[in-house]
Amino acid sequence: MQDEAAASLIPTLPPLVHNERVKLTAAAIDRLSTACVAAGFISPVVSMANGQIVISAFSLPIALSTMTWLLTALILHFAARRVLGKLRP
Fold it and tell me: What is the DSSP letter of 39?
């Protein structure tokens, strides 16, 4: 009973305001996923292309790091898509 009373005191946002906040949150999460791709995939590739990192054979630590960054980016991207599912009509 108290939860209903407390919920009635909290003003509900108009759908337009709610949707804009949801889109802003989803965009922020997706930018984090883009940063993960840049940090974990693009940076090592550019470093190898410039000769700053010399790899003569398969490097397990670099491969694991890259896969971890890419997996994190993928999880964040799908989290952003899930947040967009909260849009109101």
Answer: I
Q: Where in the chain are the domains?
A: 16-84
What is the predicted pLDDT for the residue at 35?
A: 96
Between helix 60-84 and helix 43-50 the angle, nearest 10°, is 150
The answer to whether the CB of 22 falls within 8 A of the CB of 87 is: yes
Residue 8 DSSP label: H
More confident residue, 33 or 13: 33
| Residue 40 CB neighbour total at 10 angstroms | 19
DSSP H helices, the chain, are 2-9, 15-37, 43-50, 60-84
User: The whole model's pTM is what?
Assistant: 0.77
Give residue 12's identity as a one-letter amino acid code.
T
User: What single letter denotes the amino acid at residue 74?
Assistant: L
